[in-house]
Model the fold of this input.
Amino acid sequence: MGLFRRGARENAADETTTGATPEVAAQASDDGGARERGPWDVSDVDGTGARLDLGAILVPGRPGMELRMEIDKASGAVSAAAVSLGGSTLQLQAFAAPRTEGIWDEIRAEIAESVTKQGGSADDLPGPFGRELLARLPVRTPEGRTGHRPARFIGADGPRWFLRGVVTGKAAVDPEAAVELESVFADIVVVRGTEARAPRDLLTLRLPAQDGGPAQPAADEPAAPTFDPMTRGPEITEIR
Done:
């Protein structure tokens, strides 16, 4: 089920590392206003601190957090990163976006339409990062019956990029359980790069550095920006 095609709750105030996050420099958005919270653009921060370098995104570590890198079978490229914490998971993908406007409103409507067509439901609700979707995704139970799995789709529009997160597990429906994963999403730094990219192109991810060595690059061809919460692809898992 492709929930990102080319073309929830009320507002509330897996690899790991620990350590303080870097100090945030003066944040300025494209319209000259101050950015009050992340996710951040790389130009917003003064250094990357203890964040994990995954190429297009720098992910803050948390004690007990696990990182899984999802690999596209066809291209061998890293298609997504997924962090697990406290029994819940946050899947992350970053995409190119137009210079003049965000794409989350459009993408959110497309996801809702796709979920509904698959026999699920989706509610567009306010959340800590603005509008988000609380979806009930259809799944097949071990008994062969049709059930539903909750998932929260959260998003952030940045300067020429869009970051999407998909929260599954208890954090999809329990505000208290969601706090830690929301703090991870809010402290991510996106490294868009200066190269020309078509809107919605998946920004290149790479495997994290191993034991202080260089990070391993993904394949040159980016994976197609699709996501099926019910089916995992090959994964590389590491815990620190």
Remarks:
- The mean pLDDT is 79.
- The chain has two helices and twelve strands.
